[in-house]
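ok here's Lipoprotein:
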Amino acid sequence: MTPWRQRWTVVAAALATVTLSGCALTGTVHVDAERLDVDVTFAQFPGPSCVGGPEALVFERVGSEPGTGTSTCRLHGTIDRAGAAEDEAQFLSILAPVTERALLFLIPSTYIGLPGNDNLTAIDLTVTFAGDVETVSAGGTASGPVAHITDAAAVRAQGVTVVAARQPRLPITLMAGGIGLAAGLLIAWASLVVHRRRVARPDPPDADGDPLAPLPGPVQERPVDAPPPEDPDVWRPGP
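and the structure:
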């Protein structure tokens, strides 16, 4: 077994709460497409020291249980996916893989089917994602981008699986506003095209072939010519 897998086996066993007498697991994990943030605490971790995990994470002893030979350990730190070392990349591929459209958080069942896993007494683990949670295994609940794992019995039975969207969902109000803006721009563009076509179209010619020019002012009726005056000699008596 390679050194990184030896270290990961220790951490995975802790995450899966195997062989931990009366263990309680608490803390938070954040998963997105760029990084993994971990800050969890294991009460009654077996042994006097806390070792394991990739170099980017700190696994340290923060307390002990007198007379039990166990320690309280904290695992915390950040692993960036870009430029991750080999052991870090392997850790991510097991615990927090990412696909083209989804983010996942897994405690594999292979690390749970070991003797002693029935000693998990409590778990309070919050896992957050960039997008909304789509699926959470028994033992957890989901609200938006947050999964809350609290059922120790379910975790003992089948581990933890959480699937979330890779990207956050756009708010409905923002989507509606974007659709309205696009519709408004489309209407304005169509109106501009119609206006330009009307301006470019020539006026129809009149009967003489000349374009009809608009009258400069209000239309006035043409005056009727007065009849010519009658010849007064017509009414003059004859000789």
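+1. The CA atoms of residues 32 and 130 lie 5 Å apart.
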